[in-house]
Specification:
Strand content: 25-35%
Helix content: 25-40%
Largest sheet: 4 strands, antiparallel
Distance between the termini: 24 Å
Length: 87
């Protein structure tokens, strides 16, 4: 059963996305998230800079509707050139 998951959909699902502190990082990440979760509120993004200011982490909480949606979102985020880590 490849579709087994511990999540009950739909559910609120937080994603933590980390990358270099570049001007377009947050905008690029939000564009990807909105493509997979059109009802995502960009204003709800939590942003935190690293202590040295070289990196930034974004927490985006989406309303996840399926495992396939999350898998596709993770795939696109992890392959994005500005993204270093997705948790």
């Amino acid at each position: 059963m490849a579709d087994e998951t511990l999540l009950d959909f739909p559910c609120d699902f937080p994603l933590k996305i980390m990358g270099a502190a570049k001007d377009d990082f947050a905008q690029a990440v939000c564009a990807v998230v909105v493509r997979h979760a059109p009802d995502f509120d960009v204003a709800s993004v939590e942003m935190r800079a690293s202590s040295g200011g070289k990196y930034v982490s974004l927490t985006c909480t989406i309303r996840a509707t399926s495992k396939a949606q999350l898998d596709a979102l993770y795939r696109e985020l992890t392959s994005h050139p500005l993204v270093k880590v997705v948790l």
